[in-house]
Design brief:
279 residues, mainly alpha, f41 fragment of flagellin, N-terminal domain, 2 domains, 9 helices
Length: 279
C-alpha cells in the first residue's frame, strides 16, 4: 500500500538499523574489554557460574600460599632436627671416647670430654626453645603440651580432606632423655651411649614425621595447581571473548548497519511517489 502518513518500510528499516547498531556496539565492548560477559544481560547464567569459579580460583591461590607456608615451616623444623641429630652424633662419639679407659684414666682428658658434652646438652635445649617460625615455637617447651600445626590446603571445610597437620615434639635434652648423663666412668659412659642412641632414634622418627608432612604438602600443592588451572580454563571459556568470532560478528553487524541505512534512505523516498499520482 502506498501511504504518506505511515512509512512502514522505513520504520522496519530503522528498527533493523538500530538493532544492528546495538549488536555492533556490544561486540565492540567485548573486544575492547576482552570479556564476553560485561554485564548480567550478556549472559546471566554464565556470569553466575563465572563468579563462582573466580571465587574458587582466589581460594585455590590462598590454599597454594598456605601449602607454601607449611612447607617453609616444616623445612625450618627439619633443619633444626638435622642439627639436633648432628649434636647427638657428636655426643655419642664423646660417650664412646669416654668409655675408653685411657680417657677415664686421665683427669684432664675426662674433664675436656665432659665439658664439651655438657655444652652440647645445653645446646639441645637452646635449639628447642629458639626454633621459631613467624613467632611460633616449632617444638614443645619442656613439660609443655605438644602443639598441632594445621595447614588449610583445600577450599572446603572438611578437615580430613582439606587440611594437612602434624603434631609437634620436643628436642630439648630432658625430652630426649640425655639431660642427666655423665661420662665420669666407663659404666656411665656406656649408659650415656645407650640413652643417646635412643634419642637419635627418636629424632629420626620425628624427621620421618616431618618428611611425611612435607610430602603431603607437596602433593597438595600439585593438586591445587591442577585444580586452579582447570577452574581458570573453565572461567576463561565462560567470560573471555573469542576474538576471532567477535571480529567476524562485528563485520557482519557493520555490514547490516550500512546496508540498513542504505535501505532506509530508499524507504524514505517511497512516500514521494504518491505525489506523482497527485500531479
Amino acid at each position: 500500500m502506498l501511504s504518506i502518513q505511515t512509512n512502514v518500510a522505513a520504520l522496519n528499516a530503522a528498527e533493523n538499523v538500530t538493532m544492528a547498531q546495538e549488536k555492533a556496539s556490544g561486540v565492540i565492548g567485548q573486544l575492547s574489554s576482552g570479556y564476553r560477559i560485561n554485564s548480567p544481560s550478556d549472559d546471566a547464567a554464565g556470569l553466575g557460574i563465572s563468579e563462582s569459579l573466580e571465587a574458587n580460583i582466589a581460594q585455590y591461590t590462598q590454599a597454594a600460599q598456605n601449602a607454601t607456608d607449611g612447607q617453609s615451616m616444616v623445612q625450618t623444623a627439619s633443619s633444626a632436627l638435622t642439627e639436633v641429630n648432628n649434636i647427638l652424633t657428636r655426643m655419642s662419639s664423646l660417650a664412646m671416647e669416654a668409655a675408653n679407659s685411657d680417657v677415664n684414666g686421665s683427669t684432664s682428658a675426662d674433664g675436656d670430654v665432659t665439658t664439651e658434652f655438657n655444652q652440647l646438652v645445653g645446646e639441645l635445649t637452646r635449639i628447642n626453645n629458639d626454633t621459631t617460625y613467624n613467632g611460633t615455637n616449632m617444638f614443645t617447651a619442656v613439660g609443655g603440651k605438644a602443639a598441632t600445626f594445621t595447614f588449610q590446603v583445600g577450599i572446603g571445610s572438611t578437615p580430613a580432606n582439606d587440611t594437612v597437620s602434624f603434631t609437634g615434639f620436643g628436642t630439648d635434652a630432658t625430652t630426649l632423655g640425655v639431660n642427666a648423663l655423665t661420662l665420669t666412668s666407663n659404666a656411665t659412659a656406656e649408659t650415656a651411649l645407650t640413652a643417646i642412641n635412643a634419642a637419635i632414634d627418636t629424632v629420626s622418627t620425628n624427621q620421618a614425621t616431618l618428611g611425611a608432612a612435607s610430602e603431603q604438602l607437596s602433593s597438595a600443592s600439585n593438586t591445587i595447581a591442577a585444580a586452579s588451572q582447570s577452574a581458570s580454563a573453565a572461567d576463561a571459556g565462560l567470560r573471555d571473548v573469542n576474538v576471532a568470532t567477535a571480529s567476524a560478528q562485528l563485520s557482519q553487524y557493520q555490514v547490516l548497519e550500512q546496508s540498513g541505512i542504505a535501505v532506509l534512505a530508499q524507504a524514505n523516498q517511497q512516500p514521494q511517489m504518491a505525489l506523482k499520482l497527485l500531479s
